[in-house]
Amino acid sequence: xxxxxxxxxxxxxxxxxxxxxxxxxxxxxxxxxxxxxxxxxxxxxxxxxxxxxxxxxxxxxxxxxxxxxxxxxxxxxxxxxxxxxxxxxxxxxxxxxxxxxxxxxxxxxxxxxxxxxxxxxxxxxxxxxxxxxxxxxxxxxxxxxxxxxxxxxxxxxxxxxxxxxxxxxxxxxxxxxxxxxxxxxxxxxxxxxxxxxxxxxxxxxxxxxxxxxxxxxxxxxxxxxxxxxxxxxxxxxxxxxxxxxxxx
Length: 248
What we know:
Blueprint: E1 3-6, H1 12-22, E2 31-36, H2 43-51, E3 55-59, H3 68-79, E4 86-89, H4 105-136, E5 148-152, H5 168-187, E6 194-199, H6 216-228, E7 238-240
Parallel strand pairs: 1-2, 1-4, 2-3, 4-5, 5-6, 6-7
Helix pairs in contact: 1-6, 3-4, 4-5
């Protein structure tokens, strides 16, 4: 894997993924492109980038759709024509409203825009770079060494596994993202570009809370191992952080 772009790296899982990637034995990815929104809230990422030359922090808000095309051009220039091997759509939010009687229209719309619309539009903008990476590596097997999309999903997006109800905004946005991931896996298969939905587990983040059983490091280490081991058989799959298939 020569290059990977991860959205939402100022904290939590995004920052955790960057830390794991720079801790890998050689060869590490040549370019770890990590997006963040607010420099004041991204000091850990920016400090880490000073210590590792392969981390490229880029300020970008996934809700600024009018800037996607220019952002893709900037990344293309950075990669000097090599294309992008892995697009990891990680940025996401979880509304505070959970039960039906507390659910608010604005929360639903905002969550859907960030968790579903943004990953779809980001992928659309970066398909040319993923195609370029795939075309530049014609002998590489389908997977992250060639061209791969990873969408950060959640078991809460599983319809079959829903036993508790509630969480309307988050559940529906992740279910929709799963559907989009499946379509991506079919639409881009001819270009040898694969797509998977990945559940990070219940993790000790601002979103997951302190009672979660997994630390950020544990989840991210497992996710990186899973991503690096992806192959054509996983295309269009819904996987847990450790690679276990999950029900739709």
